[in-house]
Write a structure and sequence with these properties.
Structural class: alpha/beta
Protein name: Bifunctional protein FolD
Bound molecules: 5,10-Methenyltetrahydrofolate, magnesium ion
Domain Tetrahydrofolate dehydrogenase/cyclohydrolase catalytic: 4-118
Largest sheet: 5 strands, parallel
CATH class of the largest domain: Alpha Beta
Distance between the termini: 47 Å
Strand content: 5-15%
Subunit structure: Homodimer.
Binding site for NADP(+): 163-165
Keywords: Amino-acid biosynthesis, Histidine biosynthesis, Hydrolase, Methionine biosynthesis, Multifunctional enzyme, NADP, One-carbon metabolism, Oxidoreductase, Purine biosynthesis
Radius of gyration: 19 Å
Helix content: 40-55%
CATH architecture of the largest domain: 3-Layer(aba) Sandwich
CATH topology of the largest domain: Rossmann fold
Length: 282
């Protein structure tokens, strides 16, 4: 069996999370997650709905605040300030991307780092890179859980992360490094990418180009993690990895859908729960 079933693992973790949440509620704390969505990005609508469904299933208090595409940066910052002060919300997530007239950097800086369940605030990114993470970006955190669940050895292995975003590639590299992998980050300017990729025991692909990674990129027996979420010409969801070609070569591979995506949401829920739990003694 070469498939890493992210959906099944997410469902399994959801059952355990519900029990943990019930126990926390009995102590008087209900985890609260608020999601802010600006504009009508159709992909964002799907993700935000999935998040809300998983949050309510877990027994959280959850709300989606939908703002029009025309919302000013000033109004959004004022809303974040208000959510920062509101003790019913343990986690605040502002869905990215934001409309072009709003600075993502300013918005992420405005979120209280203690409520930044995405782990995107520079304080949280710095804590991760210095080896004392508090809030971890949920996509790479979910990938680490999948690697552990499927018994993948990380220490001493060669890992290649393709993609250098702040939300996936960079934190992924740090998490693998922390577990003693030998890590390389590749990107669109990397020369001889297929040859570089072919050295990797663990290959994480987050480049945002459908079917980009083909059989010639993959070392036989490699573990292949596909973070891609692309639509093909028929509107079908496809990953960054050409699954049918790579699956016979890999020892383990994540599908799209049903791999990284569901675990991203699961880790967001776990992190919101942990954040709520930290308020107990306060
Ligand atoms: N502040 C912020 N935090 C995020 O974590 C964040 C974000 N902005 N913006 C967009 C990306 C993307 N993202 C996904 C979440 C769930 C699925 C997911 O559930 N995927 C399912 C299917 C989805 C479908 O059918 O379209 C799957 O892969 O099986 C995918 C992608 C979170 N993101
Ligand atoms: Mg995330």
């Amino acid at each position: 069996m070469t498939l890493i079933d992210g959906k099944a693992l997410a469902d399994k973790m959801a059952i355990a999370l519900k029990d943990k949440v019930d126990a926390l509620k009995a102590k008087g704390v209900t985890p609260g997650l608020v999601v802010v969505l600006v504009g009508e990005n159709p992909a964002s609508q799907v993700y935000v709905r999935n998040k809300e469904r998983r949050a309510l299933t877990a027994g959280f208090k959850s709300e989606i605040i939908r703002l029009s595409e025309e919302t000013s940066e000033k109004d959004l910052l004022a809303l974040i300030d208000q959510l920062n002060q509101d003790s019913q919300w343990h986690g605040i997530l502002v869905q990215l991307p934001l409309p072009a007239h709003i600075s993502e950097e300013k918005v992420l800086l405005a979120i209280d780092p203690e409520k930044d369940v995405d782990g995107f605030h520079p304080t949280n990114m710095g804590l991760l890179w210095s080896g004392s993470p508090v809030m971890m970006p949920s996509t790479p955190a979910g990938i680490m859980v999948m690697l552990d669940e499927y018994g993948v050895d990380i220490a001493g292995k060669t890992a290649l992360v393709i993609g250098r975003s702040n939300i996936v590639g960079k934190p992924m590299a740090q998490m693998l490094l922390d577990r003693h992998a030998t890590v390389t980050i590749a990107h669109s300017r990397t020369k001889n990418l297929a040859e570089v990729a072919k050295q990797a025991d663990i290959l994480v692909v987050a480049i945002g180009m459908g079917n980009f990674v083909t059989a010639d990129f993959v070392k036989p027996g490699a573990v292949v993690i596909d973070v891609g979420m692309n639509r093909d010409e028929n509107g079908k969801l496809i990953g960054d990895v050409k699954f049918d070609e790579v699956e016979p070569i890999a020892s383990l591979i994540t599908p799209v859908p049903g791999g990284v995506g569901p675990m991203t949401i699961t880790m967001l829920m776990e992190q919101t729960y942990e954040t709520a739990k930290r308020t107990l003694g306060k």
